[in-house]
Design a protein that fits this description.
The chain is an alpha+beta fold. The chain has 2 domains: 113 residues, Rieske Iron-sulfur Protein; 231 residues, Naphthalene 1,2-dioxygenase Alpha Subunit, Chain A, domain 1. It is built from 10 helices and 17 strands. The protein has a 7-stranded antiparallel β-sheet. It starts with 30 loop residues before the first helix and ends in a 24-residue tail after the last helix.
C-alpha cells in the first residue's frame, strides 16, 4: 500500500492533532512511519542537524580502534587517536573521494590508508602520506612506500580528513553533523545531573548483540518509552518491573524518561540482581531502574549493577539496524566467576528485546497495509510517547527547542486525569 496523498511534512498544520494535550492528542501521521519522502526529510532535519547516538565508547578504547557508522546517509569514521582523544571524520579520501574503510569496526594501527592511491592519514586526521605528490613525515621504516617527488602548489596540510563534531555521554558516542552545533549540554539538559550517581563513565562493555528490525525506528523508540504493553508483550518483565512502581522521570532535555522504583527481585525468568551493584549509590538509585530514550535514537536502561543500551540506526522508512550493549562494573566485566551471571542477564535482555522487535514489526505491517488515521494517547502511560513525537514534529517544521521537565517530579503512571491538566 502506498503512503497516501502527498503531505507537506514541514507545515505545522500536519502535526496539529499531535500538538494537543496528551489526553486529547493523536499519534503522528501514518506517513511518518511508512513514507520514504518523510524518511528522507527526517534524515536531514533530525539526524543530519543535531546530536545523534553513533555507538558505544567501550568499542573504541585503544589507539587505532575504528568504527564506521552511518548517520543521515553519511558514512563516518569514529577513531581513537594515539593521544587518547576520540575523533570523527567523514569516511572519504581527500584525493579522489574513495571510501577509506568499509563498514564495521576494528583497529587500523597507526594510520588510515586509502585503498585507491594509498594516501595516508594520521589518527588525528592529518594527511601524512601522498605517493608521487610530496614528501612524508611518516616513520622511516614505512617511508619506502611513499615517493617524495615535489608537486607545485600542493600542501598536505590542506588535505586532512573532513572532521565531524563528536562527544560522549557516559558509554554513548554522539556526533553532530551541523557545522555550528549546539553544545551537547543543551541537548542533554538535566540528564547528566540526574544520572550522575551512576558514574556512567565507569561501565565496561560485557556483551553485544545486533538485530535487523523491519520497522521504523520511531516505533522502537515509542515502544520503549511506554509501559502500557508490558502485561501482554512482556509477562516475564512485568514481574520484575511491576506496573504500580512506574513513574515518569524526565526533566528539561531532549529525552523521555521513566523509572521503576523499587524494582522487584528476580524471577525464574531472570532479572537484574545476579551481579553486585555499583558501590556508593544513594538509597534511591540503589533500588531504582532508570529508562531513558535520548532523542533521537538511543535507549539507556540504567540499573544499580548494569547498563543496557539499545542503539537504533534507521536505514529506510521501515527498516532499522539495532545494536544492544550490556555494560557492567569494571571489576565484573572480566571476572571469570561473573560470566555466567552476565550470560543470564544478557539472555534476559535478549528475550525482552526479541518480544519488542516482534511487536513493533507487527505495528509496521499494520501501518504499511491500511489507511490508519492515527490513534489516541493513553494519558496514564503514553505521555513520554507524546513528548517524543512532539520532538520529531519540532524538527520537521524547523523548530529548535528543548522540552521542559514534568511539573511534578517522579509523576506516578497511575494518576487521575485532573493531575495532568
Amino acid at each position: 500500500m502506498d503512503a497516501g496523498p502527498a503531505i507537506d511534512y514541514t507545515r505545522p498544520e500536519t502535526y496539529e492533532r499531535t500538538r494537543r494535550a496528551v489526553a486529547e492528542a493523536r499519534t503522528l501521521v501514518r506517513q511518518a512511519y511508512v513514507c520514504e519522502d518523510f524518511f528522507a526529510l527526517e534524515r536531514e532535519r533530525v539526524f543530519g542537524a543535531g546530536w545523534v547516538a553513533a555507538g558505544c565508547v567501550d568499542t573504541l578504547r585503544q589507539p587505532g580502534d575504528v568504527q564506521v557508522v552511518d548517520i543521515a546517509g553519511r558514512s563516518l569514521i569514529l577513531v581513537r587517536g594515539r593521544d587518547g582523544v576520540l575523533r570523527a571524520f567523514y569516511n572519504v579520501c581527500r584525493h579522489r573521494g574513495s571510501r577509506l574503510i568499509e563498514d564495521g569496526d576494528g583497529n587500523v594501527g597507526r594510520f588510515i590508508r586509502c585503498p585507491y592511491h594509498r594516501w595516508a592519514y594520521d589518527l588525528d586526521g592529518r594527511c601524512v602520506g601522498t605517493p608521487l605528490f610530496t614528501g612524508s613525515d611518516i616513520p622511516v621504516d614505512q617511508q619506502a612506500i611513499f615517493a617524495t617527488d615535489h608537486a607545485a602548489g600542493f600542501d598536505r596540510r590542506d588535505y586532512g580528513l573532513l572532521s565531524v563534531t563528536v562527544a560522549t555521554f557516559g558509554p554513548v558516542v554522539l556526533v553532530n553533523l551541523d557545522p555550528d552545533p549546539e553544545p551537547l549540554a543543551v541537548h542533554l539538559g538535566d540528564l547528566a545531573v540526574r544520572l550522575a550517581g551512576y558514574r556512567l563513565d565507569d561501565w565496561r562493555l560485557a556483551r553485544t548483540r545486533h538485530y535487523h528490525v523491519a520497522a521504523n525506528y520511531k516505533l522502537i523508540a515509542e515502544n520503549f518509552m511506554e509501559y502500557y504493553h508490558l502485561p501482554w508483550v512482556h509477562p516475564g518483565l512485568v514481574r520484575v518491573s511491576p506496573l504500580d512502581a512506574h513513574h515518569r522521570w524526565q526533566g528539561s532535555g531532549m529525552y523521555s524518561g521513566m523509572c521503576t522504583s523499587p524494582i522487584a527481585a528476580n524471577t525464574e525468568n531472570g532479572g537484574w540482581q545476579d551481579l553486585e551493584p555499583l558501590p556508593g549509590l544513594n538509597p534511591d538509585d540503589a533500588v531504582s531502574a532508570r529508562f531513558i530514550w535520548l532523542f533521537p535514537n538511543i535507549a539507556l536502561n540504567v540499573m544499580p549493577n548494569h547498563v543496557f543500551l539499545i542503539h537504533a540506526t534507521p536505514t529506510a522508512a521501515g527498516v532499522t539496524e539495532e545494536a544492544t550493549y550490556l555494560l557492567t562494573r569494571p571489576e565484573t566485566a572480566d571476572d571469570p566467576d561473573a560470566q555466567h551471571a552476565i550470560d543470564r542477564l544478557a539472555a534476559f535482555w535478549d528475550s525482552v528485546n526479541r518480544e519488542d522487535v516482534a511487536i513493533v514489526e507487527r505495528v509496521q505491517k499494520g501501518l504499511a497495509t491500511t489507511p490508519f488515521p492515527g490513534g489516541p494517547m493513553c494519558y496514564r502511560f503514553e505521555e513520554p510517547v507524546h513528548r517524543f513525537q512532539n520532538m520529531v514534529a519540532d524538527r520537521m517544521v524547523g523548530l529548535r527547542r528543548v522540552p521542559p521537565g514534568d511539573a511534578v517530579p517522579d509523576t506516578p503512571m497511575f494518576v487521575e486525569m485532573n493531575a495532568l491538566k
